Amino acid sequence: MGRLSLRILIINIFSGVLIFALGVLPAKGAEEGKFKYEDFGKPKRCGMCHKEIYQEWKTSLMSQSFTHEWDDVEYFKLALPHALKLKKVAGVKSGCIACHGPLAFLTGDIPPKPPAEGTRVNEGVSCDICHSITGTTKEEPFNFSYTINPGKVKQGPRNDAKSSAHDAEYSDFIRSSRFCATCHDEQSPYGAWVKETYREWKAGPYAREGARCQDCHMYHAPGKSAGGGKDRGDMTHHTFHGAHFANKLSGAVDIALYVKKNEVLPGSALKIRAELFNGKVGHYIPSGSSEERMLWLEVWATDSKGKAYHLPVDKKGFQGEEYTISDSQAFAYQAMGEIMEIKGFKGAKRDGNLPQGARIFRRPFFDPQGRMTICQWYTKENTQVDYRLGPRETKVETYSWEVPEDIAPGAVKIKAVIYYSLVPSSVGEFLKLPPSEYEAKKVNTTGITINVVKP
Ligand code: HEC
Ligand code: HEC
Ligand code: HEC
Ligand code: HEC
Ligand code: HEC
């Protein structure tokens, strides 16, 4: 081995050790603290000409990414105190803000003032954040790896846009799903992939067919983006509707029910089959904040006298299945109590207020002590079981029902309902969130009728 290559080897070993010593994540994002608030235009100003885009953005979660109550609570009551206490997660003090309140991150205003103070961080993911992003430092982006250059030039999808208010530059990047990935994929300080909507999309059928995030979340229609602008056949709307909007969520999963026979005797066995199909979502459902999202299926039988029975799902026997079947005795999320310094906190009900035995389509996250957690930054492991519905995936569930001896004869209605919740109701109640953050939302439903005949 020559002297030069030996030296390179030593340098390589040294930098390898250094990267190892620094942990998986850089402590500081590349663009942290490089700018002043004045470098970024206020959304209201953009809205003077881009009126409709402004209205859409204003009602979307993008404009509320910092002020929205659950974000406020999770950062100021859990993540920030935790970051100040535990060195391993210290990076989230600015990390959360890089995606949720980029203006404060980019100006180095960390920790930012809470939403009630009314500072400019409240602008959230603003027009001038997205339209100043020029690229990423990563091949497959995650963890706010965007590069940004605010100022007179706005990055956009056209090469012929002209405005007296600013210059415009065509950007391949802003038109790509990789652009969204800079904020939509996230790795925890323990190296776990805690958000991977882009990676889910990339591995699925929609990426192969060329359907971008923008095509489903920013619909295109004839119109003008600004007064004085050109008529466009495919103007970009900025709705960004996701799981917070009933219009996007309802019907996202198809459902069908089947029974082997239409007439049963009291005391006999009936096999019911439910098929769920994700034909509309470009990634897994749930996606994004998977640590706290649940999709579940309830199957109920109601006899002719109105007595209702909840049917427990048949077990399949895969590893980690216990996390996918609701159990009112299971407690989790103990880390919340630890961070909030509540002595003797035994956790909150793992599955909120679901009836016993319902199938849950979820991906459980575990903290370093192996307890299920909604703290994605405190997640060490989340690959034990992933029972969500992938893009264009069908899942089949069966129910073996022992028809009760004392059931009323006549018509029995069997009903299947798919529900979705953003946060387990038990966690929402514990943290006193507004009910709209945790109530069950109906995604789809179907039913069939069978007959109970007298022996
Ligand atoms: C005085 C009116 C006015 C203001 C204020 C204004 N714009 Fe524009 N903007 C326009 C017009 C006109 C166009 C051209 C539209 C077209 O031709 O389709 C445009 C185009 C754009 C484009 C598309 C560029 C491209 O190449 O595709 C972006 C992005 C944009 N503006 C962002 C912003 C942002 C961000 C702000 C606020 C910081 C802003 N604009 C403020 C009038 C304005
Ligand atoms: C989360 C990032 C994001 C935010 C926030 C955002 N935009 Fe955009 N905007 C985009 C993307 C991405 C496109 C191009 C979409 C495509 O390629 O189909 C776009 C397109 C545009 C266009 C070009 C429209 C056209 O089709 O000609 C204008 C103008 C624009 N945005 C203005 C704004 C204004 C004004 C705001 C704030 C009220 C805003 N944007 C907020 C990401 C964003
Ligand atoms: C084929 C259409 C389609 C494509 C492509 C698509 N989405 Fe979605 N997305 C949906 C639908 C429908 C929903 C609502 C159901 C749900 O919440 O999963 C959704 C929901 C979401 C949510 C909310 C998830 C949750 O459960 O909280 C996020 C965030 C999101 N999409 C981001 C993205 C990003 C980023 C991309 C690109 C990498 C993308 N989407 C590509 C259709 C699509
Ligand atoms: C600068 C960071 C950033 C970029 C870039 C970004 N997002 Fe987001 N996005 C966020 C944050 C933060 C939230 C969460 C808002 C909240 O719930 O507080 C979010 C939420 C969403 C949601 C969920 C809304 C809901 O109703 O639940 C959708 C859908 C979404 N983004 C789509 C996109 C798409 C599509 C792109 C690319 C065109 C994109 N985002 C680019 C930061 C970003
Ligand atoms: C890499 C960017 C990124 C980082 C870092 C990040 N988030 Fe998020 N966060 C998002 C996106 C994107 C969503 C939307 C996902 C979805 O809709 O499912 C989101 C969703 C959320 C939600 C759920 C909002 C809702 O309405 O359900 C909360 C709460 C939240 N983040 C808080 C935090 C906290 C606290 C931290 C720091 C520990 C953090 N985030 C770090 C991008 C990020």
Describe this structure in words.
With about 450 residues, the protein is an alpha+beta fold. The chain folds into two domains: about 25-235, no CATH class; about 250-450, Immunoglobulin-like (Sandwich), CATH 2.60.40. It has 14 helices and 19 strands. Strands 10, 12, 13, 16, 18 and 19 form a six-stranded mixed β-sheet that branches. A three-stranded antiparallel β-sheet has the order 9-11-17, with no helix packed on it. Strands 1-2 form a two-stranded antiparallel sheet. A hairpin with an 8-residue loop joins strand 7 (about 220-225) and strand 8. Helix 2 (about 45-50) packs across helix 3 and helix 4 (about 70-85) packs antiparallel against helix 5. The model is unreliable at about 1-25 (pLDDT under 50). One heme C binds next to helix 5, helix 7, helix 8 and helix 11.
Tell me briefly what this model is:
With 455 residues, this protein is an alpha+beta fold. The protein is 25% helix and 22% strand.
